[in-house]
Design goal:
Distance between the termini: 35 Å
Oligomer: single chain
Structural class: mainly alpha
Helix content: 55-70%
Radius of gyration: 17 Å
């Protein structure tokens, strides 16, 4: 049973790197939650804010449906891009890591909205997996590219595929649970 960390691509029990890697995974999971939660929280805090226009400016795609839909707003993008780097600094990661995670979480969220519009689903509709995987997978892949590229003075560790899949799975579960809780608290519009 002491080999459980190796299943998730982590160092074995007893290796001091295990705690360091687990902390990194928790920090990244937290930042992905912040990046994806910021638009929801800011929407409720600033209901009459000027930047409440759709990110796609109501542009229609070739199929006549919205490019992204009304639930993706400039206000939400700005909230994520400002809050996530700030929280990254608070948890001991770089501003660049926080910004990268926020940007790619929003790209993943927009990607899933684009796909859902092509599937004729309305803005705010539910699509389990499609709603969670891109917005957690894209930032993790971008984080790895940012670290591997070597241009920054970042001290963060590299993630392997089992690490990435673990974070995506935990995010998927947490997002489903927290969505219901936030809906009950009247913070989210839908329980999903």
């Amino acid at each position: 049973m002491s080999n459980w960390p190796e299943i998730f691509g982590l160092p074995p029990v007893g290796d001091p790197q295990l705690v360091i890697q687990l902390l990194l995974l928790l920090k990244l999971l937290f930042l992905i939650m912040v990046a994806n939660g910021a638009p929801i929280l800011i929407r409720n805090a600033f209901t009459d804010m000027r930047f409440n226009c759709p990110l796609d400016f109501n542009v229609k795609f070739f199929d006549g449906r919205p490019l992204l839909g009304t639930s993706k707003t400039i206000r939400g993008l700005i909230a994520s891009l400002l809050l996530t780097p700030a929280f990254a600094l608070l948890v001991g990661l770089s501003f660049k890591a926080g910004f990268t995670i926020a940007l790619f979480a929003m790209l993943g969220d927009s990607f899933s909205s684009f796909i859902k519009r092509r599937m004729k689903q309305h803005s705010g509709s539910r699509a389990p997996g499609l709603d969670q995987i891109p917005e957690s997978l894209f930032p993790l892949l971008a984080f790895n590219v940012m670290i591997a590229d070597g241009t920054g003075n970042s001290h963060e560790l590299h993630l392997n595929w089992p690490n990435i899949m673990l974070i995506v799975l935990v995010f998927f579960i947490l997002e489903l649970v927290l969505s219901r809780v936030l809906y009950t608290m009247k913070i989210r519009k839908h329980p999903y």
